[in-house]
């Protein structure tokens, strides 16, 4: 029996996806060769890349005029590629909404290349809310947001929109809820939450915004090069793209993002209702901003957390320790986590309260 895997990332993937991936590592497409020991330019691997791109477009309803690419370097490299590709070389300016550790890191990288400003921050309350009602200067090249704050458990529900380009890091909630891609000029996400194993990062970019900064962009950092080479400028992270493709097939099979959103809402409601009801615990994020992916909660003063820790471990639960900067607990409920796992955690919380 597998554990109830609440890991924050890398995280749970559907078991049927893991099974098929395991088979393909041994013998891919009946070639009598492993997926990871053949050329990325072989027709079977090119077909994987094409299907992965097509599934991203289909599942997110990516409109005409956008390209979808897979690159390496994680979302962290996107913190660098974004300003390289979108911030003007002369007088470049960008605005960042600082909602947590990852937004702060993205902002820091952009500052190396130009005038990157923080339009608002929730640092004053350890990032437990999403700032609202701030001004975004009209003269910025782009405005950057982070849709879901993986560490502190907040999520943007209504995306603020800038007059300039709108860029979003959706690493920890892509494919978990419906989004209107046309509201964004660029979206990026590391694979290792709702999509697949670490290694690949998906970038969805509006073609017309590229090539306008006057910057000399190093080849690997240039989106246009990856688009022109159909994500095969250099050796792509074949295994990560393949497992992402399988996961996206699985998502399509269960009814796509709209269906997934309903399931994720049910999981989040189940856990948050218990956190709010249970006298031993309390949620750390502001209710209106809390994340359907990562639920952060703490035990009240004087509660015997050692006993709680023993109990959830005995129930086969894994990965609910909070991030070191927050402490307490963080239950991540990514797409592949079944409702039964959330119920198992809720049962332990209720049993613990009675003890
Ligand atoms: N952005 C967000 C929202 C994340 O959750 C993470 C990783 N947890 C990152 C960026 C950094 O991603 P990577 O490790 O792929 O560079």
From TrEMBL:
Domain of life: Bacteria
Pfam families: Aminotran_5
Localization per Swiss-Prot or TrEMBL: Cytoplasm
GO cellular component: a single term: cytoplasm
Cofactor stoichiometry and binding remark: Binds 1 pyridoxal phosphate per subunit.
Gene3D superfamilies the UniProt entry points to: Aspartate Aminotransferase, domain 1 (3.90.1150.10), Type I PLP-dependent aspartate aminotransferase-like (Major domain) (3.40.640.10)
Keywords for the protein's UniProt record, in alphabetical order: Amino-acid biosynthesis, Aminotransferase, Cytoplasm, Pyridoxal phosphate, Pyridoxine biosynthesis, Serine biosynthesis, Transferase
Pathway connected to this protein: Amino-acid biosynthesis; L-serine biosynthesis; L-serine from 3-phospho-D-glycerate: step 2/3; Cofactor biosynthesis; pyridoxine 5'-phosphate biosynthesis; pyridoxine 5'-phosphate from D-erythrose 4-phosphate: step 3/5
GO biological process: L-serine biosynthetic process; pyridoxine biosynthetic process
N6-(pyridoxal phosphate)lysine PTM sites in chain numbering: 193
Quaternary structure and interacting proteins, as annotated: Homodimer.
Family designation: Belongs to the class-V pyridoxal-phosphate-dependent aminotransferase family. SerC subfamily.
Protein name, per record: Phosphoserine aminotransferase
Organism: Croceimicrobium hydrocarbonivorans
Top-level taxonomy: Bacteria, Pseudomonadati, Bacteroidota, Flavobacteriia, Flavobacteriales
Gene: serC
């Amino acid at each position: 029996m597998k554990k109830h895997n609440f890991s924050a990332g890398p995280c749970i993937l559907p078991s049927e996806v893991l099974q098929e991936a395991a088979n393909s590592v041994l013998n891919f497409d009946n070639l009598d060769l492993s997926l990871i020991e053949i050329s990325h330019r072989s027709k079977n691997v090119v077909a994987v890349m094409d299907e992965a791109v097509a599934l991203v477009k289909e599942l997110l309803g990516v409109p005409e005029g956008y390209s979808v690419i897979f690159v390496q370097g994680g979302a962290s490299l996107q913190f660098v590629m974004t300003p390289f590709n979108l911030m003007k070389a002369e007088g470049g300016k960008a605005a960042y909404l600082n909602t947590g550790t990852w937004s702060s890191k993205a902002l820091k990288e952009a500052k190396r290349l130009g005038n990157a400003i923080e339009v608002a921050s929730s640092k004053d309350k350890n990032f437990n809310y999403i700032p609202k009602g701030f001004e975004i200067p009209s003269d910025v090249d782009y405005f950057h947001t982070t849709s879901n704050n993986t560490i502190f458990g907040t999520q943007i529900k209504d995306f603020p929109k800038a007059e300039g380009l709108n860029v979003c890091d959706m690493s920890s909630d892509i494919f978990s809820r419906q989004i209107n891609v046309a509201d964004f000029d660029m979206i990026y996400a590391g694979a290792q939450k709702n999509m697949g194993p670490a290694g690949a990062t998906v970038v969805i970019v509006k073609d017309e915004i590229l090539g306008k900064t006057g910057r000399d962009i190093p080849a690997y950092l240039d989106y246009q090069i990856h688009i022109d080479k159909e994500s095969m400028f250099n050796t792509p992270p074949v295994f990560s793209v393949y497992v992402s493709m399988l996961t996206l097939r699985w998502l399509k099979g269960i009814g796509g993002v709209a269906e997934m959103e309903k399931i994720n809402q049910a999981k989040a409601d189940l856990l948050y209702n218990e956190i709010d009801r249970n006298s031993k615990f309390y949620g750390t994020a502001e209710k209106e901003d809390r994340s359907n992916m990562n639920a952060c909660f703490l035990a009240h003063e004087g509660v015997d957390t050692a006993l709680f820790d023993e109990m959830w471990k005995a129930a086969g639960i894994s990965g609910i320790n909070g991030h070191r900067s927050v402490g307490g607990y963080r239950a991540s409920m990514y797409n592949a986590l079944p409702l039964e796992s959330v119920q198992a955690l809720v049962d332990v919380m209720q049993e613990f309260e009675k003890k």
